[in-house]
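Methods: holo model generation. Sequences were used as deposited, without trimming of termini or removal of tags, and paired with ligand SMILES retrieved from the corresponding compound records. Each pair was processed once, and we did not select among multiple samples. The sequence and copper (II) ion SMILES for this entry were:
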Amino acid sequence: MERRKVLKTAGFAATAGLTGLAGCSSPSSETESPSNDGTETPSDEGTDSSANGGTTTTVEMHTENGEYYFDPIGLFVESGTTVTFENASGSHSATAYDESIDSASTTRIPEGASVFDSGILSEEGATFEHTFETTGTYDYFCTPHKSLGMVGRIVVGEPGGPAEGSMPPDGDVPESGTIVDQGSVAFNDFSD
Ligand SMILES: [Cu+2]
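and the model returned the structure below.
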């Protein structure tokens, strides 16, 4: 519980300009205890994520200050890593760009990769997990906010597949090379 607050504070501190919101979100965070054991906050521990195959890391989904975003917006993981998408504020989904999904007009995940779609998460602290096995580049979006550019990218092992060489149709994500180099790209670092 205390650890979670520390992590959240660190996360907010890393996203300059949002520090005032830390106080707003703390009252309701005391009851939530999502499966965060072993989890690191990618936005400030990003360099460690290169060695976390078989473990878990978290991408937060936010509605803050009129912006809708995944944080980190770019994440590198090893094959076999489980990523937890956590609804930090607002209502969001984490949905892979795959033509099998009605709201996705194109496929931007590796061939043979398992498709993921969290459905809409509305409660603060709600989570969805997906384990990434197939190597390559995964672009994904938030169903209610893709028209507002809410998109993200996860590189598993090494860049590759149909997402390489272009940006998602609904918004920009960090280049895969940058994601590999940095391990994790915070939304505010990318959008500034
Ligand atoms: Cu959203």
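The first strand starts at residue 56 and ends at 64.
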